Amino acid sequence: MPCTDVTECIEVVLDAEDRLVSYALRKRTCGRAVGAEALLDTLLTGKTASGIARLVPDDLLAQYRPSNDTEAFLALKHLFAVQAACAVLSGAAPGGRRDPCAAASIVCEAGLTRLTGLIRVNVVHEEIRACGRCAGCASKKSARAQAPGRH
Hints:
The structure is a single chain. By secondary structure, this protein is α+β, with helices and mostly antiparallel strands. The protein has one domain. It is built from six helices and four strands. It has helices at residues 41-44, 49-54, 57-64, 69-90, 121-131, 135-146, and strands at residues 8-14, 20-27, 101-109, 112-119. It has a four-stranded antiparallel β-sheet. α3 (57-64) crosses α4. The protein is globular and about 40 Å long. The termini are far apart.
């Protein structure tokens, strides 16, 4: 039976130079990975938090090269979740419960900073829709734009 709680948990670890050491994105209720726990680790590990924040969907997908819409959706979901967590860590976002990433804890030890937080899935899905990279979302935008009487 599928869970009704779709909230996701993220854990992001940065080193002393604010470079991504690791991240994990899981469902809150069952702890299962979202696609893969760290789907973009080979692309994001070692990048600075500010570099991750500046990464745009087209650039990510050009590097990741998803083979279908589901892979593209999951890659964007991971990107936007990591970006939201990095925004909290850099002070660009407050990390409150109504923010895309609500910080549950931020711990600094042994030269590492670890954020654990909750991702508001509906906000991340809106960002994915807005970027227009999913064929389904993009085709809906295109159809709306071409509809008679729409400007």
